[in-house]
Design goal:
alpha/beta, four-stranded mixed sheet, 36% helix, 12% strand, globular
Length: 258
């Protein structure tokens, strides 16, 4: 069993900190008691080795058998794959407004990346049936990416994160309690101006049930993903797997890090 306090403290030191609300530029408020990791999301049906920190970081499987068959926290249901160019023209109004603000027109933020942001946020808000969140999430993700490249880091991977507001609650009906993990696969790769110059094939993201959730827990989750990316080098190959095989493989790798 993992020592929760030590694990959270260690991973919270990861270099990509959640120190500000990127869309609003606001410093995070002090944690209230309700924002601290919640033990009431644990489940007696889970294996004793999948409890405590693991539940707080990975969520509770909506279907108890998902854990046993290797479909948690990543699941084919929450995997988006796109093979080819990102569809454009669907969100022309918001796209033009974001371009007017300067998003999508810099050396580290292309119009193709902006199109992917719009496409992926439309998919997420449609999945959770929160269409009113679309413009907010897309704008926040664009603002985050404008600060520096996260959607293209290294080893063909990237992160889609900080699109939910941190300063106030914006509830989402997640499938797995505290958080849903998402996998984004691009078999042909997209140039997201990554730090190592490689095309991005795999992106990781998480959707919180409560956007005002504990920042240390969010940071620990991001640190776990950084470790996952850093441990392996075959992400382009993973992006070409079928959805079930890819999610099982990632869950297997993730389990080794816990």
């Amino acid at each position: 069993m993992i020592d929760r306090r030590r694990f959270l403290d260690d991973v919270s030191r990861c270099t990509l900190m959640l120190g500000i609300n990127v869309a609003g530029g606001l410093a995070l408020p002090p944690l209230s008691q309700s924002q601290k990791p919640m033990a009431n999301f644990r489940s007696g049906k889970l294996d004793e080795n999948f409890a405590g920190v693991e539940v707080e970081l990975l969520g509770v499987p909506e279907i108890s058998t998902d854990l046993g068959v290797g479909l948690h926290p990543f699941s084919p249901e929450r995997t988006l794959a796109i093979d080819g160019d990102v569809p454009d023209g669907q969100f022309s109004n918001l796209r033009e407004r974001l371009l007017h603000r300067g998003f999508g027109r810099t050396s580290h933020f292309s119009e193709e990346k902006l199109d992917y942001i719009l496409w992926s946020m439309a998919k997420l808000t449609r999945y959770y049936r929160v269409p009113d969140y679309f413009e907010d999430w897309a704008t926040r993700l664009a603002a985050r990416e404008d600060l520096g490249v996260a959607m293209g880091t290294w080893k063909h991977c990237g992160f889609i994160h900080q699109f939910q507001p941190l300063g106030f609650t914006q509830p989402v009906s997640t499938r797995n309690g505290l958080v849903d993990w998402w996998l984004f696969m691009v078999p042909n790769g997209i140039d997201f101006q990554s730090q190592d110059g490689l095309a991005t094939h795999v992106l990781f993201g998480c959707v919180e049930a409560d956007s005002a959730a504990s920042p240390p827990r969010q940071t620990a989750r991001l640190g776990l993903l950084w470790r996952l990316v850093d441990r392996f080098d075959d992400w382009a190959t993973v992006s070409r797997m079928d959805l079930a095989s890819a999610t099982r493989e990632l869950n297997r790798r993730l389990a080794k890090l816990l």
